[in-house]
Amino acid sequence: MRATVVVPVLKSRSRGGQTESASTRTPESRLEEATGLAQAIDLDVVNGQIVPVNDPRPATLLGTGKIEEIKALLDERDSGLVIVDHPLTPVQQRNLEKEWNAKVIDRTGLILEIFGRRASTKEGTLQVDLAHLNYQKGRLVRSWTHLERQRGGGGFMGGPGETQIEADRRLLQDRIIKLERELEQVVRTRQLHRAKRRKVPHPIVALVGYTNAGKSTLFNRITGAGVLAEDMLFATLDPTLRRMKLPHGRTVILSDTVGFISDLPTHLVAAFRATLEEVLEADLILHVRDMSDADNQAQSSDVMRILNDLGIDEAESAKRLIEVWNKIDRLEPEVHDTMVQKSSGASNVVAVSAVSGEGVDTLMDEISRRLSGVMTEATIRLPVDKLALLPWLYDHAIVDGREDNEDGSITLDLRLSETEATELERRIGNGPKAAKEDWER
């Protein structure tokens, strides 16, 4: 379908004689992102336009002159779909469709359409369906021609005969309640999985970042997994977890999450909370940033805002978060060198290229260092009846030396965190005499 992208740039009321923009992002970057979102679901974007809006109209958002100008462009380019990169009320959406004789969707509707295409698991489908139904609650209105049924269903391009959301709001609410119950079961299942992981306490490292920042590419580079990674907004939606070994042999679980985006609809964040809880449980958060994007600072602010909404405040994020400055391979040589030098002088920043692998070893070392905490050196003798602990030791400690004794026991020189040292003492746990003989520091 041929589509036109319209980016309204609203101005806030003047304060102290100055007019401030209602958005922190540049109009050009918003247009580029909205075009990318449309292309992510195979729309043919034939025109993109930035529209200043000094006085938003309650009925149409845009002024009559601009509406007529866009209508002429739609007729000229034979465009049957208009994407407005701004939230629209049901009344505004309906009136614009009448004026332009075209389908109109806002930013929320477009993101929901993308998520609906990308959801590949039952959980993802449930989350998208719930968000879509909540979005549709106020939009049970007739569509833009008398040939089509009511607006609704899983997509906006169904045309005549598309899936119809029930006109009865009670039935709609019943469906929402049913989905919420099914998602509650998903939350309980995830909690059970996390409880099992705690019994084998591998640290969890979560990747977060703006959509298309390169999280999945970095995930594949580190773990060797085959997660879909394309230069596309929201290429992946469902979370993926993989075990991986750090340079010194310690095992951790790496979690790849859905990409964030500015102005993410509130009900969409609520629907995906079960997925995003993986971030809340993480021992370490890697904030992946696309440093080749001129708007990366605004994107970073959007990510930090969502993390704060999830309950990760600024003080906590300082302890648990590493900034990963990704895509440095796309930078000019002078900018690249400056970026690498700047990151090397910061305590919580690593510059990498997930494509070329530059800086990934440094990132892995930093992850290992941050997860290790205060290291304890120990020499331990494992008797024959405790040799089953060897795999656990190689997963959770750094083994600097090993000696196989004639009686079948093994003596190991270890480095491990205080927490894991305590856990090892508990696992050896044959009483005070055994602890004294088998555990020497």
Report on this structure.
Residues 15-26 have a biased composition (Polar residues). GTPase that associates with the 50S ribosomal subunit and may have a role during protein synthesis or ribosome biogenesis. Residues 203-375 form the Hflx-type G domain. Residues 162-196 form a coiled coil. The protein is α/β, with parallel strands linked by helices and 441 residues long. The chain has four domains: 2-10 and 25-115, GTPase HflX, N-terminal domain (Rossmann fold, 3-Layer(aba) Sandwich); 119-143 and 165-200; 201-370, P-loop containing nucleotide triphosphate hydrolases (Rossmann fold, 3-Layer(aba) Sandwich), CATH 3.40.50.300; 376-428. Helix content is 44%, strand content 20%. It is built from 16 helices and 14 strands. It has helices spanning 27-39, 64-77, 90-100, 107-118, 122-136, 169-199, 215-223, 266-271, 273-281, 296-310, 314-320, 333-344, 360-372, 390-396, 418-428, 432-438; strands at 2-10, 44-53, 81-84, 103-106, 204-209, 240-245, 251-256, 284-290, 321-326, 349-351, 375-382, 398-404, 410-417, 439-440. The strands form three sheets. It has a six-stranded mixed beta sheet with strand order 6-7-5-8-9-10, sandwiched between helices. Strands 2-1-3-4 form a four-stranded parallel beta sheet, with helices on both faces. It has a four-stranded antiparallel beta sheet with strand order 12-13-11-14. Helix 1 (27-39) links the parallel strand 1 and strand 2. The N and C termini lie far apart (70 Å). Mean pLDDT is 79; it is low at 14-21, 142-153, 159-167 and 431-441.
